[in-house]
Amino acid sequence: MIDPKEAISEKAVLIGVITQQQDETQSDEYLDELEFLTSTAGGVAVKRFVQKMEKPNPKTFLGVGKLDEVRGYIESNGIGTAIFDDELSPAQIRNIEKVLDCKILDRTNLILDIFAQRAQSSSARTQVELAQCQYLLPRLTRLWTHLDKQKGGIGMRGPGETEIETDRRIIRDKIDVLKKKLLTIDKQMAVQRKNRGKMVRIALVGYTNVGKSTLMNVISKSDVFAENKLFATLDTTVRKVVIKNIPFLMTDTVGFIRKLPTQLVESFKSTLDEVREADLLLHVIDISHPNFEDHIASVNSVLQDIKCADKPTLMVFNKIDAFVHETIKEDDLVTEKTKEHYTLQDWKKTWMNDKEQTSIFISALNKENLEDFKEVVYEAVKTIHIQRFPYNDFLYNEYEGE
Ligand SMILES: Nc1nc2c(ncn2[C@@H]2O[C@H](COP(=O)(O)OP(=O)(O)OP(=O)(O)O)[C@@H](O)[C@H]2O)c(=O)[nH]1
Ligand SMILES: [Mg+2]
């Protein structure tokens, strides 16, 4: 298996494409994210290579000429790793490796690697390991490229194939074992969740690094690990929170990301069950991030994958303290007003103001607007609580201030 500690501890080049689906700005922002992922994994991105093309080359991702340029740079600068901003197919990895002769990582690889480094509990570790095995299985052949199976024929089919088959069987057996282990963990977790009784359950969801754990900490006065790195949280934390007269449970869980590897979504089933069984979702958004609308779309698509898209959801726009916008000078009559120029007030008048949804604007870090936040959450929880406990059986009396 890939040793998470050794996977990257070196200089890397980042490789992306500009296509019809993703323009130059987008491609830039995606590579910014890839760079953040790289540094979170412990690597340093020293250079970016970007190629304009209709779609990535199915054989080599980049075009042959561009790939050669990358090889030149890698050779003369002693770079050990090339990281591609997309999931590469087994054939692409094989072909690229032949040209670049260095470690080839793709986006999925990188994310799996970070997850592996960060997994603490036995459940998180098992889930990551399963995802890694599933990623590895179809890619095992790359170890055998030197046998050049295409030429095939006598001698080529024998030992090579058998060894790949043996390796595959080992990985398959491991996948079986891990799946069984996860089944047991799932059951334990389901029992734990059941034991929590009928209390209303809220789950924090959102893109990675938006401030979910920070919000959890200020609301529940707990101490969940939060830091400016991607995927600081992998394990689920549940805290009891009381607002006024209603106690409820709040869950902080793993953050989502664009192109979250499907293997991870699948194997993190027991973690995501927390989200699936929640009565209410708080979708936390980093409104100070230039790509926050993209982030919302990515999160919604994962929610759809895990069949949670229809759950009651409050949109919590966090980091209002860090929100900035471009301004157009009064005498500038040329520049058109675009989203980069929107003030917070402008934004609040957009789709965020939809009657269908509730939006709250806060800074978890500076504790701004938390009273409003609590009020809105309280009302939402109360509605669910009253439905669930028809005798209006509040655990505490609500005292109006005198
Ligand atoms: N400026 C500002 N920074 C914030 C705010 N809330 C959180 N942060 C910072 O954002 C970074 C990420 O915060 P976390 O709470 O770890 O984010 P998360 O959503 O739990 O991230 P993952 O667990 O990685 O998915 C930290 O450096 C926080 O200090 C805020 O309101 N304003
Ligand atoms: Mg977190």
Largest sheet: 6 strands, mixed
Number of helical segments with 4 or more residues: 13
What percent strand? 15-25%
Bound molecules: guanosine-5'-triphosphate, magnesium ion
**Low-pLDDT residue intervals, each spanning 5 or more residues:** 1-8, 142-153
Proper CATH architecture of the largest domain: 3-Layer(aba) Sandwich
The CATH superfamily title of the largest domain = P-loop containing nucleotide triphosphate hydrolases
Average pLDDT rating = 85
Strand order, sheet with most strands: 6-7-5-8-9-10
Judged by helices, strands and strand pairing, the structural class is alpha/beta
CATH topology of the largest domain: Rossmann fold
Family: Belongs to the TRAFAC class OBG-HflX-like GTPase superfamily. HflX GTPase family.
Function: GTPase that associates with the 50S ribosomal subunit and may have a role during protein synthesis or ribosome biogenesis.
Binding site for Mg(2+): 213, 233
Subcellular location: Cytoplasm
